[in-house]
Structures are given as C-alpha cells and as structure tokens.
Specification:
Largest interface: A-B, 26 and 22 residues
Helix content of chain A: 25-40%
CATH topology of the largest domain in chain B: Enolase-like, domain 1
Strand content of chain B: 15-25%
CATH topology of the largest domain in chain A: Ubiquitin-like (UB roll)
Distance between the termini of chain A: 39 Å
CATH class of the largest domain in chain A: Alpha Beta
Strand content of chain A: 5-15%
Oligomer: heterodimer
CATH architecture of the largest domain in chain B: 2-Layer Sandwich
Radius of gyration of chain A: 15 Å
Shape of chain B: globular
CATH superfamily of the largest domain in chain A: Beta-grasp domain
Helix content of chain B: 25-40%
Chain lengths: ~160, ~270
C-alpha cells in the first residue's frame, strides 16, 4: 500500500507493507535516529513525535502515519544548530553510550512543548518510558531542567 | 482501512469476520502478534476522541490516555480518580498511543481500567448495526460469550452526594502489568456506607466485583476495624491462582493489602474516621 507522510519536514509518498512498523519504515528510509531496542514498547529508544506526540515507533503501524507528521531526533536541528534540548543533554553529560538519547530527547521535546516549567517529579514521569542502562538518570533530569530554563528564557530556537 | 463512519467500520468487520480487527492505537495487535488477521480497521477517523461532562463523564472510545489525563473534567470527577488509575497504565509513550476503547475491547485480565470502571458503574455506548448502551459488566459477559460489538464511548454516571473512589495496583516493576489490582467506591450517608462497590482484578482472571464484601460493608461505618474485616473477606473471596507473575497465596495477601489501602484512602477522602 501507498502512504503519504511528512518526515522531518519533507513530504514523502512511500510504498509500505501493510504490517510494517513505523520504526522499520523510518530506518529503511535512512532516518537512523530512532533505535531498535526492545520492540515491545518498554525501552523508548525508538521514540518519535507523531503529530506532535511522543510515541514508540516500534508499536505504531506505518499505515497509521498516513497523512501525518513524523519528527525524529534528526528533525530537531535548525539551520545546522542543535535544538536546546540536544544542547542541554550534551552540556550536562546526559549522554553516555547514546543509545537511549534520541528517545530521551524526543520525550523531553514533547514534555516541554506542553509544560515549559516541569517539576522534577513531572520530568521523571515524562521520561519513565525511556530506559537508560548507563546512567542513574540524574544527568538527563538535569538536562531537561537546563533545556526548560533556556527555552523559557527565549533560547536561540524560540 | 480507515472508515469515517461507525456503520462503515462495523460493516467491514462483519464482512471480513475473524481476519479483521478493529484498532484504536493498535498496540495490542503488535504486542500479542495476533494471528490470521490481515485487515486492521482503524477507528481513529470516526470522531470518537472526546471527553464530555454532561452530568457525569462521557469519553470517546479512541480518546488516548494522555488526552484523558489532560482533561479538566476528568481532573474534577471524584477527586481525579481516573488520573490516579491512568498514571499506572504503561508509560507516557504508550499512553500517547493507547486508547480507552482499545483497552476495554482487549479486556486483558490485568487491565488497570476495567476494575476501576466496574466500581464507577460505567456504561458503554456500543454499536453492532445499531447504537445501544449496556453496563460494562454486561459487555464483559457478552464478550466472554463471543458477542463483540464495537465500543463507541464510556459513560460514567454523575455521583450525587458524598462519595469517593480509590485504585491500587501491584506491579513487579514500574512498567509491568499488575500482579493484582483493585478498586473501591463508596457513597456515604451520615458517615455510613450507603453504596459500596469493590473489585479485584489480575487474580490472574479479569476483574470482577465482590458482592459478598460489598454487602458486608453496606450500612457500616468505614472505620479501621470495618476496613480490616472487609480486606480479609476480599482476600478470601477472590479466585486466586498461580501464574508466572505471582502465586495464589501472594495474590491473597495483595488483595488484603490493596483493598485495605483503597478503603483507607476512600475513608480519608470522605473525611470519615478511617
């Protein structure tokens, strides 16, 4: 079957298998930011924004994205500059092996788009679908706080 | 396939029989690798994503858990009891995708949604060629017998007077589905329990109400000793069995602790003596 969707700002018409997962489609098309992790919606490494909301792309049928808009971690930069959330993850050391990072960043972007000033508990809740096996989550939480502060203050992307 | 009217969706499902499956977010079809299904009928184009508060709450079947969490009407219904329950449902990523109608239609025995909706006396608006309404308990009984209408919406009745509800789930990890869960609802009159509803799920069977425990509490003061007696009765009343998540014995302990915690929170919310 054929679907039309927007991937990181580019409108694409693609031939898909009806049972294909959005994650597999994105990676087949060269968008390698979303990672293949558990495949069962537990780890969050495959998170992407679908119509503005963070979802596990391993659980979404590609067909469900027909007519929709997908943003992966690659789609967050503007004119070669990183998104404030990406910058904050780098600065605070919220990245170790990096496998969970695209998903963490996507969940953070979703959170901050709805709640620009989250409490630590709200941050922990928002990232609870993204597992990290390197860190104790402390650095990622600091990264979200730093990104929130910068975005509220009118960072370069605002 | 993405129909735009519920009649079109129903006709597709009838025509294609067992090879077709209705989906909201579509998570279960992925996770449980449903066999012999070659057609998915996507219900998200039917305009069934809404939360309305017209004396009680009406929630469209394809409303996601996140949309329910963000509704002001939900936050004010019975002290935000749906929020207390939904925060136990999977992760935010899955709550952005999963729908309330989908989780009811799947009727997993560990469902967080079903035990609570049973004690809130939920009715469902369904469609099977014609729109009709039935209680959640009737829907589940029909479903077990193979009768499966499409779920259109969930209706929670308005609760007049002084009432409170609570929900409790026990999971092995933050993500895993419940080893056991339970819910309670009490409407009080002059400090005494006028209406009591208690349900326990994941025993490991699907949640059911516990009429014997409810009858025991009717008319009683919801004090510490009444709560402990009810919790013991609930522990004895459930059909506890072993499975890979927990043993029957452990489930009886969880039922006692869970019912006690639910009733304790209800007593506090009612401003009673518990």
């Amino acid at each position: 079957m054929t679907i039309t969707l927007t991937i990181n700002g580019t409108r694409r018409t693609l031939e898909i298998d009806p049972g294909e997962k959005l994650l597999d489609l994105l990676r087949r098309e060269g968008t390698m930011g979303p990672k293949v992790g558990c495949g069962t919606g537990d780890c969050g490494a495959c998170a992407v924004l679908l119509n503005g909301r963070a979802v596990n792309s391993c659980l979404v049928y590609a067909a469900k994205a027909d007519g929709g808009e997908v943003v992966t971690v690659e789609g967050l930069e503007r004119d070669g500059a990183l998104h404030p959330v990406q910058e904050a993850f780098l600065e605070t050391g919220g990245v170790q092996c990096g496998y969970c990072t695209p998903g963490m960043v996507i969940s953070t972007v979703d959170l901050l788009s709805r709640n620009p000033d989250p409490t630590e508990a709200e941050i922990r809740q928002a990232l609870s679908g993204n597992l990290c096996r390197c860190t104790g989550y402390t650095k990622q939480i600091q990264a979200v706080q730093r990104a929130a502060e910068r975005m509220r203050g009118g960072g370069r992307h605002d | 396939m993405k129909p735009t009217t519920i009649d079109e969706a129903w006709t597709l499902l009838v025509e294609r029989g067992k090879s077709a499956r209705a989906v909201g977010g579509g998570i279960d079809v992925h996770l449980f690798r449903v066999k012999d299904v070659d057609t998915l009928v996507d219900l998200t184009g039917l305009g069934l994503s809404y939360v309305r508060s017209e004396g009680g709450l009406t929630i469209g079947a394809t409303t996601t858990f996140t949309e329910i969490l963000e509704s002001a009407a939900v936050a004010s219904h019975l002290d935000g009891i749906l929020v207390e329950m939904i925060e136990q449902v999977a992760s935010p990523l899955q709550r952005n995708q999963g729908t309330i109608g989908g989780t009811i239609a799947s009727a997993h025995p560990w469902s967080d949604v079903i035990p609570l909706l049973l004690v809130l006396d939920a009715e469902l608006g369904v469609y099977d060629g014609a729109a009709r309404r039935l209680s959640l308990a009737e829907y589940l009984a029909d479903r077990a017998a193979g009768v499966r209408p499409l779920v259109r919406e969930v209706c929670l009745p308005a609760v007049p007077g002084t009432a409170a509800a609570a929900y409790e789930a026990f999971t092995a990890t933050g993500f895993d589905v419940a080893m056991l869960n339970c819910a309670g609802f009490v409407r009080a009159d002059g400090g005494r329990c006028e209406t009591v509803r208690i349900s326990v799920g994941g025993t490991p069977a699907l949640a059911t109400r516990l009429p014997s425990v409810e009858a025991e509490l009717a008319g009683a003061l919801l004090d510490e000793s009444a709560i402990e007696r009810a919790a013991e009765s609930a522990s004895a009343a459930i059909d506890a069995r072993d499975d890979r998540r927990a043993t029957a014995d452990y489930r009886r302990t969880l039922a006692r602790v869970g019912v006690s915690r639910c009733l304790g929170r209800i007593a506090k919310r009612l401003g009673g003596t518990g």
